[in-house]
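Task 17 of the worksheet. Students: predict the tertiary structure of the chain below and write it out as structure tokens. Keep your answer in the requested format; marks are given for formatting as well as content.
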Amino acid sequence: MRTRSERSEPDESQLGRGQPSLEQSERGADRDASDLNLLAEVNPNSYREFRFNRTVIGLVTLLASVYWPPTLRGVIDRRVLVNFRIPPEALESVLPDRFRPRTVAGPDGPRAIGGICCIRLREMRLRGLPAAVGVTSENAAHRIGVEWDEDGATKTGVYVPRRDTSSRLNSLVGSRTFGRHFHADFTVTEGGGRYELRMEHETDGVSMSVSATETDRVPEDSIFPDVSAASAYHECGGIGYCPSPDGTQLNGIELATDEWHVTPLAVEDVHASFFETEIPADGVTFDTALLMRDIGHEWRARRSISTPETA
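Model answer:
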């Protein structure tokens, strides 16, 4: 599914607000590379000490994840939530039995909401450590809004069938605690209120891309009547479950943000090979895209769930 959406005119007063003044392209999501190179030239000893400390922190985080689920602290530097409308029945073969689609009423009947979370995280480290030792990475999560019954109550969150990351450390640490993370290539160009994001995993051919510009409204044909409704849907989806590397469990994780604020994006082009492969072509329709920036947050481990085959 490659979708071109009708584009709403952006609010020029918001373009570029809080954005880099120069357009940048990055692979591997290391936005601090130029600063580190300068530090290496000016003060080699400080540079070596910084790299050593960050390596040690990475190893400590990896070891910690073996013995107890760590809580990670950082900043959502940029998060793009791309949403698709999907008939609930089209997800029967995708969702684990525990979950059912969390639907939104629409003119053509209830629709599930699936999509991609394209998120750049910075200053990521174990909670309690200084931000200076944190790492930056680009990440992509294919997600579906779900609900399930737990302790006599209905819970809401997301099922994440696949996660990709630019960071090898994330791939190692995340896969041990937060579900399998594939290491993939990312290319990002952004500036002036415009975002072009691409991800590709060469081994299995999974890829995604989105081109979007900041605007002030959701598309007219969106299932959400306004930005507030779209925001509320996602704010209730902080708990996610992702298959473990061996497939015997669904590893849980909770995204806890210091605040919650989204703005809409006008999407010109979007492509998601995962949804193209797993769901019939006529079952996925682009709906909305939302943007978050500069949000402090934590990732907290949740109780894992055994899959039916191993329960």
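Marker's comment: The chain has five helices and 16 strands. The chain has one domain: 2-306.
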